[in-house]
# Entry
Amino acid sequence: MKYPKFLKENSTVGITAPSSGVGWQIEDYEKSINNLKKNHWNIVETSNVRVEGDVSSPAKQRGEEFMDLIRDDQVDAVICATGGDFLTDMLPYIDSKEMVKNPKWVMGASDPTNLLYYITTVHDIATIYGHNAGSFDAKKLYESQKVAIEYLKGNMLPQENYPFYEKSREGRVEGAYNLTEKSEWKSLNGDFDITGRIMGGCIDCLQYLPGTKYDGTKKMIEKYKEDGFIWYFDVFALRSADFYLALFELKESGWFEQVKGVIVGRILMFNEDTSMTYEKALREIFGNIPIIMDADIGHVAPKMTIINGCIAHVTYQNHKGTIKQLLK
# Structure
């Protein structure tokens, strides 16, 4: 696995919008960028970042502006501006030779999932999931936001489950998380201690990759089969029945042949309108391997930072979990 160079003072971070732009939340985005600049990083933006609408620009432009940052020797890392719905149609405009020639950290969350997944599974370059460039808008950053920044610097801090989570964003003050609910991770198969390469992202997006040239899962699994894999899934809006069908599609596509454990984050738009609950879906697909639900991963704050492709050591005991990530 290739691990790009980490950021230091005076590094340059490129912001681009491979999905939606941030025009609808420009004030919050400005606050976020100001927080990133406090790390003494230079910020450059592509022309599509501050655009409103479902997509920031046509697919070709989104792909080309992303590649402009990859090719630019002055840019040290790339962070996706925000999420959206239509990122996948810019993947045909990614230049694989340039990606391999100029490996850089690419960070994003939600719709950027498939860009990160493509880079890691096809090009063997680690990527970072958990936050977009507009995710640091609080006047006082929460610990999980600080951890994401530290990861960009190369400080691979262990992450333990946070004590509280945010049920509703409506109570936010000065951008700070509205943490009102006690956090407890749920294990479906008891306490455990496992190690393996960690991969995943937003399953609402991942379900569309099997059968495309942007899915390098089988190649990755073959290369790292001795390590085994820990899969993590951020569920945004999939009904429990659709979650089951998405997992079934991934399983039948060979994604879980070397699975050692599964972590599922808190579900933003929880909907169990059939007898196929989220828990039952996981049991049907994965059986008795270690499975965690309600982890601090995904659309519900606070959000852990995951390095796609790295070695992860995951432990669980008494509703509490720890993830330690190693670059090897």
